[in-house]
C-alpha cells in the first residue's frame, strides 16, 4: 500500500515545506471583517498580525467539503492507494468531524485522524505519520499510533497583551484593565485540543520562567524515562519581528540543551484569540527519532 499524508495549515507546515517533504497541506480559510481569505494563498502572517493590531473581527473557518475532496482526489490521482488526513483538533474546530463524515464515501481509503493537537505539536504528528508511512505502516496503523499518543504533548503560551482575549470574551474589560496596571501576564495551556488558563506572572520575564518551569516539570514527570531523541521541544508565537522570534528560539534552546527545538508561528485559529507578540513553548513525544541539538 502506498499511503499519503495530508494536513492543514494549522500545523504550521507551509505549502512549500509540505511539497518539499511529500506532505499535502490544505490552506485554511480565515474571515476578516466579513471577507474571506486563505492562509498562505491570500493571507500571510504579517497580514494576520496587522488585522489583529487593528482589532478587526477574525474568524477561522472550516475548509469547504469541496476543497477537502478535491485534494483527496488529487492524492489518488498522484498514485496513492490510501491517505491519512490529520487536521486540527476536534476540540478546537468542527473540521475534523466534517472530514470524517466525508471520508465515509471513500471505502476506507481516507482515514481521518483526530490527534487532538494543533500548531507545533500537530506538526510533530504529521511528520511522525510520514515517518511511519515510509517505514511500511498503513493508514489504520498510523491512526492507531497517533490517536494513542494524542495527549502526549503540552503547549504553554504567554500573552503579551490582553486586548484580543478581552475581545473574544475570555476576560472582562475590568479584569483586563486591572491586570494591565499590575503588569500581569496570563499563561495559557493547550492540551488535548483545549485552551485553558494555567498561571499568571508579573512581567514577561517571570512568565517565560514559569513556562520553562512547567516544561521541566513535564520532562521530569509526565515524560520521565523517554529518550531525548523521542522528545520534541517546540518554540512558537505570534512575534511580529523576525529578530524577536529568533531571540525566543535561542532562549528555548539554551533552556533545553540537547533537545531538538523547532519553531513555527502559531496558527491563525489560535492567533485570532490571543493576539500578537505572544510566546509559546511546547513539549511532546514523537514516533520518529529526532536529531538532538
UniProtKB/TrEMBL annotation:
Lineage summary: Bacteria, Bacillati, Bacillota, Clostridia, Eubacteriales
Protein name as catalogued: DegV family protein with EDD domain
Cross-referenced InterPro entries: DegV (IPR003797), DegV_C (IPR043168), DegV_domain_contain (IPR050270)
GO terms for MF: lipid binding
SUPFAM superfamilies, alphabetized: DAK1/DegV-like
Top-level lineage group: Bacteria
Biological source species: Ruminococcus flavefaciens
Keywords: Lipid-binding
Amino acid at each position: 500500500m502506498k499511503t499519503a499524508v495530508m494536513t492543514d495549515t494549522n500545523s504550521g507546515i507551509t505549502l512549500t515545506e509540505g511539497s518539499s517533504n511529500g506532505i499535502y497541506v490544505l490552506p485554511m480559510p480565515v474571515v476578516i471583517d466579513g471577507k474571506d481569505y486563505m492562509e498562505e494563498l491570500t493571507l500571510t502572517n504579517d497580514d494576520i498580525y496587522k488585522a489583529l493590531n487593528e482589532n478587526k473581527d477574525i474568524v477561522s473557518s472550516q475548509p469547504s467539503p469541496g476543497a477537502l475532496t478535491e485534494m483527496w482526489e488529487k492524492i489518488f490521482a498522484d498514485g496513492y492507494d490510501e491517505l491519512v488526513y490529520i487536521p486540527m483538533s476536534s476540540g478546537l474546530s468542527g473540521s475534523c468531524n466534517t472530514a470524517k463524515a466525508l471520508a465515509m464515501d471513500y471505502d476506507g481509503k481516507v482515514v481521518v485522524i483526530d490527534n487532538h493537537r494543533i500548531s507545533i505539536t500537530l506538526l510533530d504528528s504529521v511528520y511522525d505519520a510520514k515517518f511511519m508511512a515510509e517505514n511500511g505502516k498503513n493508514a489504520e496503523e498510523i491512526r492507531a499510533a497517533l490517536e494513542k499518543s494524542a495527549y502526549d504533548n503540552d503547549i504553554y503560551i504567554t500573552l503579551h497583551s490582553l486586548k484580543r482575549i478581552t475581545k473574544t470574551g475570555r476576560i472582562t474589560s475590568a479584569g483586563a484593565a486591572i491586570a494591565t496596571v499590575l503588569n500581569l501576564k496570563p499563561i495559557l495551556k493547550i492540551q488535548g485540543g483545549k485552551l485553558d488558563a494555567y498561571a499568571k506572572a508579573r512581567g514577561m520575564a517571570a512568565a517565560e520562567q514559569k513556562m520553562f518551569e512547567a516544561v521541566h516539570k513535564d520532562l521530569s514527570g509526565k515524560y520521565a524515562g523517554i529518550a531525548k531523541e523521542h522528545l520534541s521541544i517546540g518554540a512558537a508565537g505570534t512575534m511580529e519581528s523576525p529578530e524577536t522570534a529568533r531571540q525566543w528560539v535561542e532562549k528555548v534552546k539554551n533552556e533545553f540543551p540537547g533537545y531538538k527545538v523547532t519553531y513555527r508561528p502559531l496558527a491563525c485559529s489560535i492567533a485570532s484569540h490571543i493576539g500578537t507578540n505572544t510566546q509559546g513553548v511546547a513539549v511532546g513525544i514523537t514516533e520518529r527519532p529526532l536529531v538532538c541539538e
